[in-house]
Design a protein that fits this description.
The complex is a heterodimer of chains A (307) and B (213).
Chain A lengths: L4 H11 L5 H13 L1 H19 L5 H11 L3 H27 L11 H29 L4 H6 L33 H4 L10 E5 L13 E5 L5 E7 L9 E7 L4 E8 L2 E3 L2 E9 L6 E9 L5 E9 L3
Chain B lengths: L23 H11 L3 H21 L5 H17 L10 H23 L25 H12 L2 H10 L5 H12 L3 H25 L6
Helix pairs in contact in B: 1-2, 1-3, 2-3, 3-4, 5-8, 6-8
Classes of the chains: A alpha+beta (307), B mainly alpha (213).
Chain lengths: 307, 213
């Protein structure tokens, strides 16, 4: 199973169609005879698709991956799996950062040292989080239970007020995850065709009070999908929520029933995906109705952004 | 699955009305050439077929399953005619037949497009495919969570850790060092878990009646 490092470069060239005909024929003979090499080829393919989803490929390379590896139904299925795994891994990373901060590191220390350091760091983190939860509880008694169950609590206190418009961050710092940046925003240089434009809305302060700045969702040209994240803080507790997005004429643009909260890397949120084509520039309203509760609504504005 | 008949003259056409181009007799002869043990030969046959499908897919062919079956049919016919496979390494023959078939596909496509591209590039779509984004209540995500939960802890941890991180290459190097295995071995190990997940996901989506993406 110990493959030559040059094999993955060769396979990458083959998968992207860069290998001349005879070389490709020769490689295919090896692929058919060698199970490990074949598995490595599929692994390189999966890595390319995952990198495409994370926006790590140059645009031209991303287009080739999309065209060569994701144009068939099977290829689209593999891309969907890569995307889902990236998302699931992102959620898990958010959970684990709190519990085992050193779990992702290479073993720079002998294993027992790692355990003790991880334990000590975990205790420090948990103490800090406990203090944070207690402080938060004192400031917002109605949110006590929710803070207590949020394992992946943000390292920085959440912004209770959300006065500023939430621009779509291109490359936000990784270590800071304020509510204005979601998991889609933390990905670096996303592929233009795949990366959603992200807007994070919060009902904490005003529930759409007059005079509050209307948040903007910037849609750069070519954006296919918009992602609206609605901070769970400020919503009544419920198992599920109905969410409706309406335009200025009160026409329904998107409606989702029975939406459950998702754990994002900054906290719990409702996440709604809307094809960008349904969102021409203008004012919109997102209305959330908790199961058995009453509707709350908030306005936002879609503006054309720049790449 | 549509099997086709053909004699390698480049003029084959699909014959959807004929479900099996491979008779039970020629299939038995093919298996006997793939190994003395019938079960092992059957596994070998399945592996070859699966790999051929992927090879045709990577070459941009629209019906990779049909082409893989056609390759196998032609090999079986040659064997029935008296050609002997090298039992230790039968793959070369399959590959040679697959390459000939691919050239036929190219020729056919060239006749249709009136422009020959020997790399097969013309088989790929010129327009980028539209790929729908995941919805949070997407059954695919729901199924993936179920399938992840069904994995043994170490495999679930491995596949999730492999997909984590911003600077992914550095992150994976650290993971391979931690496990004490080379990077490509890590990739293969993760891929085998991913393949399990893929099968579980297909099964789950099928049970829920969800169409493929």
């Amino acid at each position: 199973m110990n493959r030559e490092p040059q094999d993955d470069a060769l396979l990458r060239s083959y998968l992207l169609g860069d290998l001349p005909g005879e070389d490709a024929d020769r490689l295919e003979r090896r692929l058919l005879a060698d199970d490990d090499l074949f598995d490595l080829a599929e692994a390189v393919e999966a890595d390319l698709l995952a990198a495409l989803d994370r926006g790590e490929l140059a645009p031209a390379e991303g287009e080739r991956v999309l065209r060569r590896l994701a144009s068939s139904p099977q290829g689209r299925g593999r891309l969907a799996l890569a995307r889902s795994l990236n998302a699931a891994a992102g959620e898990t990373a958010g959970d684990r950062k709190v519990v085992l901060p050193f779990a992702r590191r290479a073993p720079a220390f002998p294993p027992p040292a790692i355990h003790w350091i991880a334990l000590a760091a975990s205790l420090v983190m948990l103490t800090g989080l406990g203090w944070f939860a207690w402080q938060h509880r004192a400031q917002a008694p109605e949110a006590t239970s929710r803070v207590a169950v949020q394992t992946p609590a943000p390292l920085a206190p959440p912004q209770v007020a959300a006065p500023a418009p939430a621009p779509v961050p291109a490359n936000p710092p990784v270590s800071q995850t304020p509510p204005d940046s979601g998991p889609g925003a933390k990905r670096k240089a996303p592929h233009p065709a795949l990366a959603p434009a992200v807007l994070t809305l919060s009902f904490v302060t005003s529930r759409g009070a007059e005079g509050e700045a209307v948040q903007q969702l910037r849609l750069p040209p070519g954006t296919r999908m918009a992602e609206i994240q609605i901070d769970a803080e400020g919503l009544d507790e419920a198992r599920s929520f109905d969410v409706v997005v309406r335009n200025r004429d009160k026409e329904t643009i998107m409606e989702k029933k029975g939406l459950a909260l998702r754990a994002l890397d900054w906290g719990q949120a409702l996440v709604l995906h809307i094809p960008a084509e349904r969102l021409p520039a203008g004012r919109y309203e997102v209305a959330v109705t908790p199961q058995g509760g009453s509707e709350v609504a908030k306005e936002f504005e879609v503006v054309e952004g720049r790449r | 699955m549509t099997h086709r008949d053909g004699d390698g003259d480049g003029e084959d056409r699909p014959q959807p009305g004929k479900p099996h181009g491979l008779t039970p007799e020629s299939f038995e002869i093919l298996l006997s050439q793939l190994g003395p043990d019938r079960d092992q030969a059957g596994e070998r046959y399945e592996t070859i077929r699966r790999k051929l499908i992927r090879l045709f897919e990577w070459r941009g062919c629209a019906a990779p399953e049909d082409l893989a079956d056609e390759t196998i049919n032609r090999v079986a016919r040659r064997i029935a005619e008296g050609v002997e496979l090298h039992s230790a390494e039968p793959y070369g023959y399959f590959c040679g037949v697959a390459h000939l078939l691919f050239k036929e596909v190219l020729r056919r496509a060239a006749r249709e497009h009136r422009a020959l591209d020997s790399s097969g590039e013309m088989l790929f779509p010129t327009a980028l495919p539209v790929v729908a984004d995941d919805e949070p209540d997407d059954p695919r995500l729901h199924c993936l969570r179920q399938c992840l939960a069904a994995l043994p802890n170490d495999q679930r941890d491995l596949v999730l850790r492999y997909h984590q991180g911003e600077s992914n290459i550095r992150h994976r190097k650290a993971l391979s060092q931690e496990l004490g295995i080379p990077m490509n071995a890590l990739r293969i190990r993760v891929h085998r878990v991913r393949r399990k997940l893929e099968a579980c996901l297909d099964d789950c989506l099928h049970r829920r009646g969800t169409p493929p993406p």
